[in-house]
Amino acid sequence: MTRVTAVQLAPVVGDLAGNADRALQALAAAVAAGAELVVLPELTTSGYVFESPEEAASLGLAPDDAVFARFAAAAGDAVVVVGFAETGDDGRLYNSAALLDASGVRAVYRKVHLWDREKLFFRPGDARPPVVETRLGRIAVMICFDMEFPEWPRIAALAGADLLAVPTNWPLVPVPEGERAPEVQIAIATARMNRMAIVCADRVGLERGVDWTGGTSIVSAEGALVAAVGPTAGTASADLDLLDSRDKRQAEHVDLLGDRRPDLYGPLVGGA
After folding, report:
1. Which end of the chain is more exposed for a tag (fewer CB within 10 A), N or C?
2. Where is each CN hydrolase domain found (predicted)?
């Protein structure tokens, strides 16, 4: 079994040093409590609600920034996924997430599906989600709104991902009494459809008039919500057998990937 922890924080827009310190403290506490995989929110280092492209650009970090060496040092034996605003080699800003361990940054994913005003600040990524071989298993990374496009997590599943790590910032929306946030429902459905564990690390805190869902959730490969945080900062942890994700059988004669019929999917497969 793998001890998985999702950390729910309240990043402060513009506070690079403070955000990093709070994230590192939470990471160290999670590792000390036995976490082997730790997922932190989208744009952990920068905050989210930018007032201008110039402000957003001023909060960008390169993947070789010293802060990631601090995350690697705090990781110990754990694998860590953390969201950040990335200044690319091309000088453009990306909404990114780094997967790292004690050896340093192993992969960086750039969010492909930008939500609403993100398009004013970030350039969309143009690469599929990385699926990284780690000592824990194969871990894929995407960010927030990406998960609302079913093809994207399916690509990760087809590439052999055992677990999908999803840093998120989910704005709070009204839901009927007793219902889960829509994004949490999407995570549950996505895990079940792909038989792939999913870890979503959301955020909290009122930021420039925007409130957040606090939807941090851990979902098993069977589509069961096994841990959540609630509306405050904190952590969710669960023990998952990542190898469960490699068995796509839902019943004796049901294989969720093997039963696909791409020969009939036409435009969806062809990209038209």
Report:
1. C
2. 2-242
**Would 33 be classed as within a structural domain?**
yes
CB 36 within 8 A of CB 230: no
Q: Which residue ranges of the chain lie beneath pLDDT 50?
A: 272
Q: How far apart are CA 207 and CA 112, in angstroms?
A: 24
> Catalytic residue among 36, 86, 118, 144, which?
144
Through-space distance between the first and last CA atoms of the chain, rounded to whole angstroms: 42
Dihedral sign for Cα atoms in the order 71, 74, 75, 81: negative
Residue 42 annotated among the catalytic residues of the structure? yes
Q: What global pTM score does this model have?
A: 0.96
Q: Is 200 marked active-site? A: no
Question: What is the count of structural domains for the chain?
Answer: 1
The question of whether 144 is a catalytic residue gets the answer yes
Model confidence pLDDT, tens digit, residues 225-265: 999 999 999 999 999 999 999 999 999 999 999 999 988 88
CATH number of the domain bearing residue 151: 3.60.110.10
Q: Which residue has the tokens 């995350």?
A: 71
